[in-house]
Structures are given as structure tokens and as C-alpha cells.
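Below is how a single chain appears once it has passed through the pipeline. First comes the sequence as given, then the structure the pipeline wrote out for it. We keep one example in the README because the format questions we get most often are answered faster by looking than by reading.
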Amino acid sequence: MPATIDLNLVRTFLTVHTEGSFSAAAERLGVPRSTVSRAVAALEEELGVSLFHRTTRRVSTTSAGVALFDRVAPSLDALEASLADLPEREPVPAGTLRITSTADFGAMVLSEPIARFAIRYPNVRVDVHLTNGIVDLVKESIDVALRFSTKPMGDSSLVARKVGALAICVYASPKYLARRGTPRAPADLGAHDWVTFRGAPRVLTAPPSRAKAAIAADPRIVADAMWFLREVIKDGAGIGPLPTFIADAEVAAGTLVRVLPRWVAVSGTAYFVHPGRTHVPAKVTAFRDLLMETFRQRPLLVLENP
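Resulting structure:
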């Protein structure tokens, strides 16, 4: 028996057996009788057996044909039923939506829209993977990533849509500034305790002029997690860069102060990213639309002019 057989040929055979004639099978399938005859002949050739006894007046199934019907009909029906109700084929979002993002962005920005999405679409299960590493979406079967980049996304296998602007600015606690004074220019940072994240650029930029200034201060504390840095800065250990979405609530509460307000440590774009597909699942487009709606109402970044 061949390793692979066209299931369309098998379905045609099953229909002829069920209907009892080539003509009736052709009518049910909506194809010419000649198409049915060729399909059955092709299947017989593949299998090396006769499936029907044919006369000018009638068609009857051979013993081999009956055995084939008994073996494959239940399996083929089950397969077709399984394919017909795949979650991603449903017009209403369903199935599992796998999302990845950084831990800080996920907790501070995505938690609320994900909760709204889960309430709005009860047939979708959400699986959130928070990590500071770059996840291979295809390899890990991830549907959606929220990524931050300072330059356009370059992976042609992915679809990236801008959802907002992001910035990392410089902050300190009121008690630190009371103790050490407030820097008025980037050059003043050399006299302060610099608290920063690993791999952070050592340059500040002043939009919209794009003027640049090097950070002269050597780090006193270096860490991988923005949450940790925020708490260390709040506790008065020094001055350091934080994403605005992490720091804004603390500024409003008076526990952090944005220093050097004309300057930005990092500015870039937040992207909604998903694997490139011909048919994008409804669950992905629904989450994208909800996220865009959220960010239109509450933009990720609104920097006041200094």
C-alpha cells in the first residue's frame, strides 16, 4: 500500500458505496460523473484492488471495498469533524492565546487589557509568558509578543504593528535629592550615585533637538529587573533610568521625581508582533484590536514639554 493516499479519493469512494451508484455520488458531491469514475479508478490503482463490480445496469461493492469502507469511514468522519471545528476557524475567538512580554511591561501595561479580553471572549484561554529574553515565536508556538525596540522590526517572518511610544527617563527619590542635591545637567551626574539596568546605554538624548550627552557617572548598582531598580531608587540609593510606565504612578504619588526633564535615556516603540500567516486567527486579531483601543484611550507615553 502506498505511504500516502489522497483523502479526496477516499471520500469519493465512500460516497459511491453509500449512494450505491456513480451518478448518485456525483450528484451528492456536486461534480460530473466522469470525475467520480476517475477518482475511484485512481484509488483502485493506488491500492492495487478492485473496489466495485461494474455493469451497465448496476454497481456493487467488492469484498475489498466493503473492508475498506468499514476500516476508514469512521476515522475519516472523525477527522473531518475535528478539522471542521478547529478553534481558530471559528468566527468568534476561541482556543488558547499565547502571549509573551517582559515582566514589567506585562504587569504594568498588559494585565488590564488581558483581563478585559478574557472577560469579553470567554471561549479563549490566555497563556502569558513573561520574560526579559527574546522568545522565538514560531519555535515556542507563541501567538503574540509585545516588544520594545529603538529601531524598526527587521524580521520578515513576523508581522509587527506599532502600538505606542515608550521612553526611559531619569528619576530619583525626594529624599535622595534632599540629601545630595538635584542635577541640572547631564554633566552633574558624575557627582551622583548612578543606579542602572545591565546593558543600559551611557548616553542621554534631548528630544526634539536630539542633542546627546554622555553619562559620566559610573554605576553604583546594576541590576536586570526594572522593578528592583524602581524600589532601590525609591529607597534613596541613587539616580537612575526607569520606563515611564513603571515610574509615572510613583511620580504622581510623590515617591519619585523625574530629574533632567529635558533628557531621555532611551526612546523607542512598542510593537504588537505575531508570526506572519495567511490566515491570522480571530483570537489574535481580537486581542490586537482591543489593545489598540486601549492605547488610543490611554497612550503609552505622553511626555510633557519641559
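The mean pLDDT is 86.

See the next section for the split statistics.
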